[in-house]
Amino acid sequence: MEIKPGNFCPLLKKDCIGLQCAWFTQVRGHNPNTGKEVDEWSCAITWLPVLLIENSQQQRSTGAAVESFRNEMVKANECSQQVLLAMVAKPTVMEITE
Question: Whose CA is closest to 31, among 52, 2, 10, 62?
Answer without folding.
Answer: 52
